Amino acid sequence: MTNPEKIKQILLSEIEKMDQHREDFCRRPGIDFTRDRKIPFDTFLHFQISMESGSVNHELLKYFNFDVQAPSLSAFYQQRARLSDDVFQTLFYSFNRHFSPKSLLKGRYQLLACDGSGFTFTRNPKDTESYYDPGGRSRKGYNQMYLVPLYDLLNRACTDAVIQPMRKRNELAALYELIDRHAPRSGTVPVFIADRGFHAYNVFAHAIENESFFIIRATDTKMQRLLGADPPKEEAFDIRVTRYLTRSHSKKKYIHPESADQYRHICQKVTFDYFPPGGYGEYEISLRVLRFPIGNGTCENIITNLPENELHAEEIKELYRLRWGIETSFCTLKHAIAAVNFHSKSRQMITHEI
Known about the structure:
Elements: H1 3-19, H2 41-50, H3 56-63, H4 73-81, H5 87-96, E1 109-114, E2 117-121, E3 131-132, E4 142-152, E5 157-165, H6 171-181, E6 189-194, H7 201-209, E7 213-218, H8 220-227, E8 237-246, E9 263-265, E10 282-295, E11 298-304, H9 313-322, H10 324-336, H11 347-353
Parallel strand pairs: 1-6, 6-7, 8-9
Antiparallel strand pairs: 1-4, 2-4, 3-4, 4-5, 7-11, 8-10, 10-11
């Protein structure tokens, strides 16, 4: 049996396991998927995953070998409406549990990139959380969902994802959820790699509290705020800084008044999940800050907590370069796998397909 055949067999096995407990994945347990239909529960899951870019009618005919007894469009829509919201997410997790990362940096670091990408689908003005009115991009308006996945750069596999309606998108909240939800395999340590849109103290804290590492790009403005009034004069540097985060403006309440220049105020509107109960107090955080030239007189800023004795600056630079792998994965997902060819205008069904 070839490796692709083994992988397919694992998928079919997981679908069969879910079929044995199909009542857990129906909107009306004990009612839905209890009668004999042309598209039973397990067949429906397999068909949904197998769908390509054709219309639903064409995909049904193709899947059932153009049999005149192939299920109708109405039968497909009725069966699809009976599925719970989390059915494909459950299948995704159970399938992924069969595969441990084979490629690790230095034998233990799993490189997980995070970024977001939009998916446009059939116009549906009633879905106000994903609909955009007519404008410069569209004369009729359009709807979008937003995908924020974790992508294993060395093993080229998606390990988790959060899907949001575009008007409600929150990349930072998605990354908090992904970091908290990630369960490292034995002997591995995750390194979350993200672009400058994910720079936030709360992201750093979530990774640290989950005993993980991160590499996140920072703009010059955010780097200046982090380092304070007197940043290093060198064009390239690799330094360690300690900062005390607080919501209080009162210097009299500082626990370390001798290090007043190392305090950073977090306003009430900014999310930070690790202050003591009541929302006040202090949170100490140690960060490694790097800056290096990338040509044409410009420099790149990186914030990380990776240890200096294991990964030097040039290695950090190379690891961030690898982040581009998630961008090419979006291209593969959308076009090679045809994830942009949806078969519904319902947000729930679009989430199923993604």
